[in-house]
Amino acid sequence: MIETMSRSVRIACVAMSAAAAGWIATEAFAQEGKVNSVISEQIKAEQAAQASQKRITQLDDEATGMLADYRQMITEAQGLKVYNEQLAAQVKSQDEEVATMSQQIGEIETTSREVLPMMTKMLDTLDQFVKLDIPFLPEERAGRLATLKEMMTRADVSLSEKYRRIVEAYQVEMEYGRTLEAYEGKVEEKTVQFLRAGRVALLYQTLDGKETGYWDVASKSWKVDNSYNEAILAGLKVAKKQSAPDFIRVPVPAAKEIN
């Protein structure tokens, strides 16, 4: 009987142990489920945090880019402002220049109206002077005057160029008054050598040396005077650089008393 009770106790103990093991296993499973649930939630939280951080980083990058664009736009706006100010200054300067040029054009037109008659008078005076002067280089001087008169009618020649050419012609005529020149030409039908001594005297000699003469200012005609034969020969050598400069004898018109 005691054995039977002992066996029953053992059976009961085993049963209790089994029950306890079952309970423990069940409890362990329950705890494991809770742990897994907590871990799962933690993973989800971490994933959500990572997604949030990624979004924050993305928004920060976008904000940084927008700030850089904004700063660039501010810089460009400032540059455009400075450029516009410079353009405004240039436009103002150009307007002033246009106004000045318009004024100068008006002055040029006024000057042209005043200068053209003056230049025409200068040319007429030069023409008259040549006609009254001793008759040296007649073709050359007449040709120069004809060219100047033709030039005055041309629209393609500037006013300044016309004036320069007239002044140049005056300078050439002035130069004749202080030079000694020899050249070949004609007296009537005779080919002669001319000797011009400034505007003081104009002598000639035929090529064969048989006739010498000079221009008589009083009668405005040629006078034959072989007494100047040696004088003109010496003068021709000096004029042609064949002899050193020296005094020569030339016919000089007598001075007239001016009343």
Please characterize this protein's 3D structure.
The chain is of the alpha+beta class and 259 residues long. It has a domain at 180-252. It has four helices and five strands; from the N terminus they run αααβββββα. It has helices at 2-132, 138-152, 159-176, 229-239; strands spanning 180-187, 190-197, 201-206, 212-216, 221-224. A five-stranded antiparallel β-sheet has the order 1-2-3-4-5, with helices on one face. A hairpin with a 2-residue loop joins β1 and β2. The radius of gyration is 62 Å and the shape is rod-shaped. The mean pLDDT is 83.
Provide a short characterization of the protein structure:
By secondary structure, the chain is of the alpha+beta class. Helix content is 68%, strand content 12%.
Regions with pLDDT < 50 over 5+ consecutive residues? none
Q: Please tell me what the overall shape is.
A: rod-shaped
Series of secondary-structure elements, N-terminal to C-terminal = HHHEEEEEH
Give the spatial strand order of the biggest sheet: 1-2-3-4-5
Total helical elements: 4
How big is the Rg? 62 Å
Q: Averaged pLDDT, please?
A: 83
Distance between the termini: 198 Å
Q: Quickly give the structural class.
A: alpha+beta
Report on the biggest sheet.
5 strands, antiparallel
The percentage of residues in β strands lies in: 5-15%
How many strands appear in the DSSP assignment? 5
Q: Considering DSSP H and I runs of 4 or more, what fraction of the residues is helical? A: 55-70%
